[in-house]
Amino acid sequence: MTKQVIGLAVGAAMVLAFAAIGVARDKDKEEDKDVVEARKDVLDVLKAVEDGKGDKDLADKADAIKKKDVELNNLMRVFKLKEKGGLGFGEKPDDKSGMEAKIIELSRTERGPAKEKLKKESKDLIKLAQLNIAMAEIGKPHFPGNKGGKTKKDWEKWFDDQKQAAKELIEAVKKEDGKAVAKAAKDLLSTCTDCHADFRKN
Ligand code: HEC
Questions:
Q1: pLDDT tens across 34-64, in order?
Q2: How many whole angstroms from 156 Cα to the centroid of ligand 1?
Q3: SS3 state at 109
Q4: Sign of CA dihedral 72, 129, 52, 171
Q5: Which of 24, 46, 79, 86 is exposed most, by the fewest CB atoms within 10 A?
Q6: pTM of the model
Q7: Alpha carbon distance 40, 190 (integer Å)
Q8: Residue 62: which of 163, 165, 151, 184 has the closest Cα?
Q9: Is 146 left (phi over 0), alpha (psi -120 to 50) or beta?
């Protein structure tokens, strides 16, 4: 083989190798893209909740998201730790923080967080509650069909309960009432676990 031919062969091999890496990268990106899109959709509904939009507006947005075939799992991801693709908790969320983790933390004791802590976190806690109001609306159109004797009625009731508990959480935070915060967080958490027990596959 002449030097030129070897050079060509090496060049061609490199082009192929880079092409393969490129394909692998694109595949990763594709998954991320769905998650990023879903997060955008959730944040859009959260903004509507923050702006005081009524249930009808929220339900219309939720229907539009469902029509785009966004997966419920990708939408629910907002609850996970920041490092796992969730929103995280707080104004500048730590990688290890997450909305679900925060709900669990709040529900852990009967007396709930101290007044000082509630004061400090009030804005972030209200955002957490508003996220739950948004998610309750977003989740509703995603009914996957009856499972284990549970029906659409159960599905919708859990989301209604989630919304109710979230509203109670907002009231409790505004009153700086730690005990009521803990109670609302506990109620909130049971809507997650009750629905997941029947409807979540993994
Ligand atoms: C009425 C039903 C229902 C309620 C209420 C509900 N979820 Fe889910 N959630 C689901 C289903 C169904 C899935 C799985 C979707 C799938 O796999 O397609 C899921 C998935 C998840 C996931 C997995 C996301 C991922 O990326 O793997 C998380 C996290 C989650 N939910 C958190 C919560 C939290 C926190 C709450 C309560 C504050 C909650 N969910 C309330 C039905 C519900």
A1: 999 999 999 999 999 999 999 999 999 999 9
A2: 13
A3: coil
A4: positive
A5: 24
A6: 0.87
A7: 26
A8: 163
A9: beta
